[in-house]
Each structure stands twice: as structure tokens, then as C-alpha cells.
Write a structure and sequence with these properties.
The chain is α+β, with helices and mostly antiparallel strands. The chain has a domain of 140 residues: Gyrase A, domain 2 (2-Layer Sandwich). It contains 8 helices and 5 strands; from the N terminus they run ββααβαβααβααα. A hairpin with a 3-residue loop joins strand 1 and strand 2. Helix 2 crosses helix 8 and helix 7 crosses helix 8. It starts with a strand and ends in a 6-residue tail after the last helix.
């Protein structure tokens, strides 16, 4: 399964990837003109790279993820500059009525939450539909819990930096959920690299 649901309406999907454990090992071994002596020696090498922050061999892996997340998560995500983003534009596209609802919200609080968000969308749709306001202006009525979609293309080294920072307990819980979904998808393509990374750089973490 390449798509993992996250939060009430989001997901992360791995749409394409290149490289993998073999590519990382191949590139790293060029430094020493060495050859693989099997899985155990490759594992040792990967751990050596991670422990010594010799990260460029991990750039031999490249991933493209399709992400759907609330704007407030995207704002934090896009601080990660080493990577490429292509996001749906609210200048050119009309926003869909799709917004974040926190887990566990119930009863009157849930109703109030939905009413507030729906009122924002009601006015937005009225401005765009009835009054022909430009979408790029009307969007300022929308809440930061609005879901957005983008492709994120990132190499393995930058991805590891993202995962270390965003699975940390100091990161907001909602982006942690996305980071763990990204981690699971990346590990499915390069189990040795991300397995070693989990053990060495994400000890005692888990969602
Ligand atoms: C828990 C948490 C709380 C945060 N709180 C805030 C906050 O309150 N306010 C806020 O503004 N930000 C905040 N941030 C964002 C943080 O400062 C970083 O912008 C973000 O985590 C991206 O990390 P990065 O720069 O390592 O990643 P990338 O931008 O992907 O960069 C990767 C690496 O490339 C190198 N690099 C990239 N660009 C440059 C450059 N211009 N110069 C030198 N080296 C560069 C650095 O080594 C960097 O680590 C927070 C992040 C976390 C995880």
C-alpha cells in the first residue's frame, strides 16, 4: 500500500522513487574503492555513514511523495528547503470544502468547530461564485486547517534530516504523524538504510 491516511482527511503517498540501499552502498564504496562483501558488510557501512554524518551517499536515493495535509502542517513542512514542492494553487483552483478536525473533538465543541469552518467556506464560495471575486483574494477568508495538496521530491539525505526533526517529540503532533507515514513508505523501499537510521537516529521513538 503506497498511500497512508493521516489525520481526518489527509494522506501521504509514495508516487515514485529511485535508488535504494544498493545505490547508497554503491556511491559510498566509491570513496574507498571498496566492494561489497555481502549484506553484513553493507549494514556496517550504512551505520558508519550515519554515525559519522557522511550523508551524501544517501542523496543517491530520491523520492516523490504526494501529500495532502492542513495548511498549518504544510507551512512547517515547507521550511525544509532541500527538496522540491509543487502545490495546488488557490489563485488558479477553487478551494474544496475540506478542513482539519482534531481527533477526539465531540458534542458542542465539534459542532462549533464545524460551524466556524463551514461559515468561512460559505462566505468564500459566495464571494467567488456570486460576486466574482478573484480566488487569490477570497482565499484569505479560509481557515489554516484547510487541506492542501503537493508533490514533494526529496533526496534520502534531506529526507533523513526531515524525519529526525519531525518525528521528535518537540515537533507538533500532527506533523509527527505525517513524518511517521513518510518514514514507513521510505523504509519499504530501502529497509537497510532506514532501518539503521531508525535504530541510530530515532531511538526510543515511535508513534
Ligand atoms: C520542533 C521544531 C520547532 C521549530 N520552530 C520554529 C519556529 O518557532 N520558528 C521558525 O522560524 N522555525 C522553526 N522551526 C523550523 C526550523 O528552524 C527549520 O527551518 C526546519 O526544521 C528545517 O530544517 P533544516 O533547515 O535543517 O532543513 P532544510 O531547509 O531542508 O535544510 C537542510 C540542511 O541544509 C543546510 N542548509 C539549508 N539552507 C541553508 C542555508 N541558507 N544556509 C546554511 N545551510 C543551509 C543546513 O545544514 C540544513 O540543516 C522549527 C523546527 C522544528 C523541528
Amino acid at each position: 500500500m503506497n498511500r497512508i491516511p493521516v489525520l481526518n482527511s489527509g494522506y501521504v503517498e509514495l508516487v515514485e522513487w529511485m535508488g535504494g540501499d544498493d545505490a547508497v552502498v554503491r556511491n559510498a564504496r566509491r570513496c574507498w574503492k571498496s566492494e561489497s562483501k555481502g549484506l553484513e558488510s553493507d549494514r556496517k557501512l550504512l551505520r558508519h555513514l550515519l554515525k559519522n554524518k557522511h550523508m551524501t551517499p544517501f542523496e543517491a536515493m530520491v523520492f516523490t511523495f504526494d501529500v495532502k495535509c492542513p495548511l498549518f502542517v504544510a507551512r512547517q513542512w515547507h521550511r525544509h528547503r532541500i527538496g522540491s514542492y509543487n502545490e495546488e494553487s488557490l489563485r488558479y483552483c477553487t478551494a474544496e470544502r475540506d478542513y482539519f478536525i482534531p481527533e477526539g473533538l465531540q458534542g458542542a465543541q465539534l459542532e462549533a468547530w464545524k460551524n466556524h469552518n463551514d461559515r468561512c467556506f460559505d462566505l468564500y464560495e459566495e464571494m467567488v461564485g456570486l460576486h466574482r471575486m478573484r480566488r487569490e483574494l477570497a482565499r484569505s477568508l479560509l481557515p489554516v486547517g484547510l487541506y492542501t495538496r503537493y508533490y514533494w521530491t526529496v533526496n534520502g539525505s534531506s529526507l533523513i534530516n526531515f524525519l529526525v526533526l519531525r518525528t521528535d517529540k518537540h515537533a507538533q503532533k500532527e506533523i509527527q504523524e505525517y513524518a511517521w507515514a513518510v518514514f514507513k513508505l521510505a523504509r519499504s523501499t530501502a529497509p537497510e538504510s532506514f532501518g539503521a537510521m531508525e535504530e541510530l537516529l530515532l531511538p526510543d521513538r515511535g508513534f
